């Protein structure tokens, strides 16, 4: 019969097993603890990146950064001053559309540190890691964190300019966005002061084609060379100190791109086709303007940017010149062979003497206000708007296609002769204060208030006119109005021919006349009235004034 004997672990064996289990448990605990701490740091870094992306998106929309909550102190990084606080309720409110939930520290639930620069364009977001080191993320290179920022920006496709003129390997000149077929320069990093910048033709084998909004605004750069750039976006170099620029291939210059660069004396853009609002305004004195291929020039493009020497402007390809584009630029002569529309105040306040507009159809309000224009050629113009040539020195005018001339269009010139064979409407004060001696308006239906007030008229022929409004021909001093014909006139408004010192001895009122208002012919020297209308003497008498009427011979 077999016998089985029970054997137990010895005490020594049990001690060994327990010791091994304890060692394994310790190793596991240490590993798990380290993993947990690393995981928390990873969360913190992710939070910082998420906040940074929301801030970058806000900047990309042209908006300013939100102010930090609980601002506690200031620091200076790379010559840029920052105010430091926290990203809390108020600042998060301004980011709510791009940052739905406010990130906080995963352990102590505190808010992350957040700082912005004095110009509201740069930020720093800071998280404190488990080892008490600070993890920073910024759109500015930081002196004590350049390696980390370098790593972070590489993750986002942003790298330093390979042509660093000062060989600072731990800092970059530019950040950029990378697309399928192009590179867009987005920011300039203001590290050590730089006066000259060269933007490379290629980065990562892709053409550098655009400079984004505010990329170099505002810095102390004096010279920029960008041989491959084709588009310069809004305010890219605004409020700068530029003295020399080279952009041989730029085709579009957007709003305010070079506004307020008083040191810039040469504007040379041989390839530019479109110049947008205020692109080169407020530059003060420019010695050379070269834009031979431009097609459209938008509002205020060169407003108060003055040429400091006599200049002729010829723009062979331009079709539209918008509001105040060249206002106050000291131009003396322009030649615009393809322009069809000239908008409000486009060339106001220059020194223009000669204007050639062979294809222009519309000239808008104040287009040439306050210039010295003596000669103007515009054979295809159909409409001339308010005060278009107000306060000039034009002596002779022929407008074969014009149908409408608006208020004050040629007021206070030196006109002695006009030919307006197709004009239908002439509005208020259109030819006020000229030296016209004779007018023949074969198609005009209405002559509005003050239209020819203050001229030197002798002969007036209005074969189709039906309405003559207030003071239309008043105050024609120092001349004899010897002949006036208005065979179809129906209404002559008050003071229409008021205060004309002299007058033909006989005035014929045509059969078409339905109404003649008070003082229409007061202070004139008509001796005989030939009334062919159905108006009565009582209806006509007030038109000549109570003192003058008794001198007239009534003829019905």
Description of the structure:
The chain has 556 residues and is of the alpha/beta class. Helices cover 13% and strands 25% of the residues. It has five helices and 42 strands. The chain has an 18-stranded mixed sheet that branches. A five-stranded antiparallel sheet has the order 1-2-3-4-5. A hairpin with a 2-residue loop joins strand 1 and strand 2. The radius of gyration is 40 Å and the shape is elongated. 42% of the residues are buried.
Keywords:
556 residues, five-stranded antiparallel beta sheet
Short overview:
This protein has 556 residues and is of the alpha/beta class.
Question: What does the largest sheet look like?
Answer: 18 strands, mixed
Count of runs of 4 or more consecutive helical residues: 5
User: Which class best fits the helix and strand makeup?
Assistant: alpha/beta
Euclidean distance between termini CA atoms: 168 Å
- Tally of DSSP β-strands: 42
Residues in helix, % = 10-25%
Principal-axes shape call? elongated
The low-confidence parts are 142-171
- What does the radius of gyration come to? 40 Å
* Overall mean pLDDT: 83
Q: What amount of the residues lies in strands?
A: 15-25%
Task: Compile the SSE list and pairings.
Elements: H1 11-60, E1 69-77, E2 80-86, H2 89-95, E3 113-117, E4 123-128, E5 134-138, H3 146-155, E6 174-178, E7 183-188, E8 196-198, E9 202-203, E10 206-211, E11 223-225, E12 231-232, E13 244-246, E14 252-253, E15 266-268, E16 274-275, E17 284-286, E18 288-290, E19 296-297, E20 305-307, E21 312-314, E22 320-321, E23 333-335, E24 341-342, E25 354-356, E26 362-363, E27 375-377, E28 383-384, E29 396-398, E30 404-405, E31 417-419, E32 425-426, E33 438-440, E34 446-447, E35 459-461, E36 467-468, E37 483-485, E38 491-492, E39 506-509, E40 515-516, E41 528-531, H4 537-540, H5 546-549, E42 553-555
Parallel strand pairs: 7-10, 8-11, 10-12, 11-13, 12-14, 14-16, 15-18, 16-19, 17-20, 19-22, 21-23, 22-24, 23-25, 24-26, 25-27, 26-28, 28-30, 29-31, 30-32, 32-34, 33-35, 34-36, 35-37, 36-38, 38-40, 39-41, 41-42
Antiparallel strand pairs: 1-2, 2-3, 3-4, 4-5, 6-7, 9-10
